[in-house]
Amino acid sequence: MVRASVIIVNFNQISHLKTCLYSLKDSLSKDDEVIVVDNHSLDSSSVTLLLLFPWINLIESEQNLGFGGGNNLGARYANGKYLAFLNPDTTVTPGWLDSLIYAMETTPHAGMVTPKIILRNDPTKINACGNNIHMTGLTLCRGVNKPERFYNCCKKVNAVSGAAFLIERDWYEQLGGFDEVFFLYLEDTDLSLRSRFAGRNCLFVPNAIIYHDYQLKLTQEKLFFLERNRYLMLLKNFHFLTLVLLLPALLLSEIITWVFVFLEDQKLWKFKIRSYAWVLRNRKVIIRSRAEIRPLRKLRDREILKSHVCTLAFEQLEPGLISTAAHLLFDPLFF
Question: Could you give the residue ranges of the DSSP H alpha helices within 114-219?
Fold first, then answer.
């Protein structure tokens, strides 16, 4: 029987992926397998993978299915009891998978487990120790840019990082896998929320170490997907009354994001508007999604939201005096 299936979705990242696979080979047991989904890459990824890594199971998609769709495709071919999802721009350390599986098997009500993710270009700093979800759905890396020696205790977190996490395959299937409507960004947060609503926690495991080639860049496409998917995630997972009660905070978050858009790049405003338009056009999709996940819910909105944060990590976007002023102005309002 296969213990764990490691699933990696690749789209034109063959140089990163080679480094990832070289690090993976010696970290796995004979009872594990590696599945690489090539998401219709435009480079020579498939040829290179077949030549250099004959021990992987390569699945070639006929179209770009996005992050969630690519992982769902890989999961359909998986034979393992556990599914471990990795980004192609990560590298692993010895024992990472064993630590995640041990935490899963020994922690009651654990649904998803995520490692300590370190910045590969600056190994003295953290990329993510799980993710924090703000009360308005904005999701940020927990502990980003803090010294890597911090965060050394297993802890329940709001969400796992999609860069690296592990879930039991049966639980993944019960949850319905990734929501492919998201395509890119926040599908890890959405899956984490659904797991928590269904009664199983997300857990940060500090002795599982992953390195990630991560840089925070906000492109026009990324802003569109982040904002569109934040609205989608809130509308499909929370009761409408909850969203009405959160309306003052949600409006405040809109003011903040609009200010950020104009400070960062005024051309971004069109993509912010596009995110609103998408939600309006896809009302039926959202309503259908709400109906699909309703039977899984065991916890109330209140129980989920009480662990979400009410402060935004402004320093991740604009360190210095501006972030300090933003904290002084907005933290009391959200609180």
Answer: 169-175, 187-197
